[in-house]
Design brief:
The structure is a homodimer of 479-residue chains. Chain A is an alpha/beta fold. Chain A contains 14 helices and 16 strands.
Chain lengths: 479, 479
């Protein structure tokens, strides 16, 4: 075989290294296959018009890293490097999708991130898509409004107003592909050097985005009503019991409708206290993540905090990932009017991340009443699963405290005698059941003051699976 | 009428301001309609249990901002504020889409950003969508791989390898919703304090993203072969003729296949010089934007710079916005292997911004041969338009230099006698034709050393429109 290696004798990279790099890449990419015999160092040197010591050095490097092997009296051969490159086999023409959350060999996975897809209205979705993709809808294939199409924003506004008491105009809404992207945009709008207070435990993805965008995050402990405002005020001091002194927060990220993962529904009084905190100083904002607000089982629904704000200090963030499906990749933020100019200046040039086609599908889903019907159906489906789980958990009440059951799609179990979350997880796993220790939701897991708590989600489980899972848990935990 | 205003007497916001804010919001949102008579300050004060001076101050503030009007002997009335809030009317149930680029009252718009949508394979796209949205494809509605589905990445890899000579594995590819989003991710991967050299003029959206992500951008002038490597080396010094001294760039953003907007195709020698620059120091990278590379009319195609790189210093970025349609919102970056770990650490938690459904549609479009057929068809369509335009521009050659015609979807006209771009634009506009002055592509428009150059795109024009536009231009420019 003849190797054609493009060599650059102008640059500062030594020749042997260029040869080594090139061959390594060819091997890694499978262009040089395992078992292929390579030219001798002499032949290759002649061929490339370089000295033999150059090719020898290149081969030695490849040998030392395991890319090639030397067989005495036979020469150099390409190694089998399956272990080095990730080889994934796949039949041609098939789009392999990850399996639904909750596999990995568990019989029952109480994943808090699942949703029920059996109830997804595939026919409706397909029919809408089909009607949209017609020739005279050409403009749909062009780039649209960076904030999202006005009609969709107006439909979202109308839904938020009636269902959540959110007060805004469509101009305040920004549509984007998922929570993380929108929080990234929001970080740009809020500007650098923000100090963001987050409930602890919290939604870790939001934490990761803020950190990656250069914000400082200050964890603030909760009491039974949610973020502790006294601690929020003291969070800047070093005497607040945490190891590291933080700067004073100017922004608080909260989940009043159903705190994730604690399940706390924040009472009105606490909401007012947080608003008062925000009003005290210029440039203080509350970020209200209204995740999970669609599903409630007890008590009268509390409108969004945003609707109580008459000072323009609440940024509202929501998503259709939970209420329709994660793959929809559509979320939205509602900015206070005074942040709109800043958004336009600092992030308004970012083109929309949601295709106009998808925006149109969602728009029709919302405005033709499908969304309302779907939500009503899902409320009843999830209520059924919730009641089934709560019924099964009755027997555990002697040994466990159960919390967070008034809303959302998961509950928390706390072992009263203090069996650790790892032990609870491991015993469940041994019985084929996956449960989720609470520590994973803490910014600093060592601050977890609930060491005996695990989270059980039920959205993507059938009632049969819920019963089977609970039966196994009772055995595993020796109840 | 009775106004129910939620007042917070715990917070630090004065009462009058709470009343003012609330009423302003109600008026802006149209809950209080123009012409409605408001309660008197006395009645409102009684009703809200506040002092009359409080309601008077609130009303004065509203008066001074034009939200309400005082009519002597009659009272206070809500103003008509169409001018204040953007009121957009829209028939219910209809998704209003922006018109195709190139309206605004022009007869012919030589927009450099258009694409030809008449040739879009609507039927194929619809058929693929329909086949995907079936019940047993449920997993498609869940969240997928943050980098994009492996099968799609493999299809992109295969296309890039054969069409552009890009050498990579699917593991190096990250799929995302559009260029801006991907450049944002890339900024996270490259880390803070990057100093990025950009060709001047350049693709301004990339410039805006880098700035918004806190990078420093250093404009580097081009010669006829593209970015001037000597100037790149000197860009850090203050003696390079620019006003502000910059830091030494460690990254260069270049468009070797068809510089936007200059249309320069970078020769191999210059590419090697840029690679040599990158190899000289650790942590130097070239970002190759391969925009427009699909369409060439003259000369043999030059493979991507990425394929020449054997040191892992080229980051390749591409998109399907131009070759399929902007609304597809799918682009991709190819990272060198040594940046993959950094991507996973710093940005790997960002969920994919492209829905799995859309990824699957594109995957089938690529792997079932539709993309290749579509590209071949578009090449011939655009070649026809290109040749038509070049034929029409023949007569202008006496007074104009024509450049950038070997590739891409636009050309540049430079008036030899030095008529300024504003005059060229204005005279064209008076004749109903939109052309685009080159200054808009400069990082600092005052550095534009081509003051007599305008850009003409032709992708979304029919040949008839091209002929009509050229006829009008000749008249307008008195040729």
């Amino acid at each position: 075989m003849e190797l054609i290696i493009p060599l650059d004798n102008q640059g500062n990279i030594p020749m042997y290294q260029q040869i080594y790099q090139y061959m390594k890449q060819e091997i890694r990419q499978g262009n040089l296959k395992a078992g292929v015999r390579l030219p001798s160092t002499r032949v290759l040197a002649d061929h490339l018009k370089v000295s033999r010591s150059t090719t020898q050095m290149a081969y030695e490097q490849l040998l030392s890293e395991g890319y090639i092997e030397a067989v005495p009296c036979k020469g150099y051969f390409v190694s089998a490097i399956e272990a080095l490159v990730e080889v994934r086999e796949q039949p041609p023409g098939q789009f392999v999708t990850q399996e639904a959350a909750g596999q990995e060999g568990f019989v029952v996975d109480f994943s808090p991130r699942g949703i029920d897809l059996d109830s997804f209205p595939f026919n409706t979705w397909r029919k809408i898509s089909k009607n949209i993709l017609v020739d005279d809808n050409k403009a749909l294939f062009l780039n649209g409004d960076p904030q999202g199409e006005y009609a969709l924003r107006e439909a979202i506004r109308s839904y938020l107003h009636s269902a959540r008491g959110v007060r805004c105009s469509a101009d305040q809404i920004i549509v984007g592909a998922g929570n993380e992207y929108l929080l990234m945009l929001l970080s740009l709008v809020l500007g650098p050097n923000r100090v963001i207070a987050m409930e602890n435990p919290t939604y870790k993805q939001a934490y990761r985005v803020f950190i990656s965008q250069g914000c400082q995050v200050v964890p603030v402990e909760m009491d039974k009503h949610g973020m502790d405002v006294r601690r929020l005020r003291e969070a800047g001091n070093s005497e607040n019991g945490t190891a590291a002194p933080y700067e004073l927060p100017d922004t608080a990220y909260i989940m009043p409708s159903h705190q994730h993962p604690m399940g706390i529904v924040m009472p009105v009084k606490r909401r007012q206290e947080l608003l008062a905190w925000a009003y005290e100083k210029e440039e203080r904002y509350l970020i209200e993540d209204d995740y999970d607000s669609e599903f409630r089982y007890k008590g009268k629904p509390i409108p969004a905090l945003q609707g109580m704000d008459h000072g323009g200090r609440v940024i509202y963030i929501g998503t259709f990932s939970q209420s329709i499906a994660p793959a929809i990749r559509v979320g939205f933020i509602v900015l206070p009017v005074q942040l709109l100019a800043r958004y336009k200046e600092k992030a308004g040039f970012y083109s929309s991340t949601v295709s106009r086609i998808d925006q149109n599908i969602l728009y029709q889903f919302l405005t033709e009443g499908h969304y309302e019907r779907h939500l009503n159906r899902m409320r009843s489906v999830y209520k059924g699963k919730h009641d089934c789980l709560m019924g099964e958990l009755k027997e555990l009440e002697a040994e466990f405290d159960i919390a967070g059951e008034h809303a959302g799609l998961h509950v928390l179990l706390t072992h009263r005698k203090g069996m650790g979350e790892q032990e609870l997880e491991q015993k469940a796993a041994a019985a084929g059941v996956k449960v989720y220790g609470l520590s994973r939701y803490f910014i600093h897991p060592e601050h977890n003051q609930y060491p005996s708590t695990v989270v059980l989600g039920y959205a993507n489980l059938t009632e049969k699976a819920i019963r089977e899972g609970c039966r196994r848990l009772k055995e595993a935990w020796e109840l």
